[in-house]
Specification:
Largest sheet: 3 strands, antiparallel
Strand order of the largest sheet: 3-4-5
Order of helices and strands: EEHHHEEEHHHHHH
Radius of gyration: 17 Å
Structural class: alpha+beta
Distance between the termini: 29 Å
Strand content: 5-15%
Shape: globular
Length: 201
């Protein structure tokens, strides 16, 4: 795990996918797990988590994969009434988990998956991070914020999986390369070896 202290005393945290997976495992309830995974598996901001409803999940044109409509995304331009809309990737396995959650809760298509406040969801992440720190012995988990889950998602796609920045920008709702740059960490030695080895240098 890599951490970087900000001037205001807060921290930026970059996790590997294995480190991230400790958080859903540490979540106290099914509801907490869903909230954590909407940020860490789909790249949602904490405020966007509160808008997700079953009706926002659609099967993609190939009939096998899923997308999640984000209806109230952050809009820095002021061009959109009620927030910027986008579609983000919903992993097949996570779609099945959400479907089970919806069935267990008896949620209608128009009901929110997470009907809580933004601060409550932030607190859930803090709790899960504290439990993950206790379970692993890694106190860097205690520095985590909800935004670090989105950072982890973007960094995983861009650095670890080499997904095109344009695709990640579209999925995450970033409008420019400058906006996505803070979500990048320096490539690992393994990334460098693999990338340079592939071109024979």
């Amino acid at each position: 795990m890599r951490t970087e202290r900000n001037r205001d005393g807060s921290w930026n945290v970059w996790m590997s996918r294995e480190e991230y997976r400790e958080l859903p495992r540490a979540a106290d309830t099914f509801e907490h797990e869903i909230a954590v995974r909407l940020m860490g598996d789909c790249g949602l901001r904490v405020a966007e988590v509160l808008d997700v409803r079953p009706e926002h999940i659609d099967r993609m044109s190939d009939g096998r994969h899923y997308e999640l409509e984000v209806v109230g995304g952050k809009d820095t331009t002021g061009e959109y009434d009620g927030g910027k809309h986008r579609e983000t990737w919903l992993p097949v396995e996570f779609e099945a988990v959400i479907n089970r959650y919806v069935q267990e809760r008896g949620l209608a298509d128009g009901e929110p998956l997470i009907d809580r406040s933004k601060r409550t969801v932030q607190y859930w992440v803090e709790e899960a991070a504290g439990d993950a720190a206790a379970a692993t012995g890694d106190d860097d988990y205690r520095r985590l914020s909800t935004h670090d889950l989105r950072r982890c998602w973007a960094n995983h796609l861009l650095v670890e999986e080499n997904v095109s920045p344009r695709i990640v920008m579209a999925l995450g709702g970033w409008s420019s390369y400058d906006a996505i740059e803070p979500y990048l960490a320096a490539p690992t030695e393994e990334n460098i070896i693999e990338s340079m080895g592939e071109i024979g240098l």
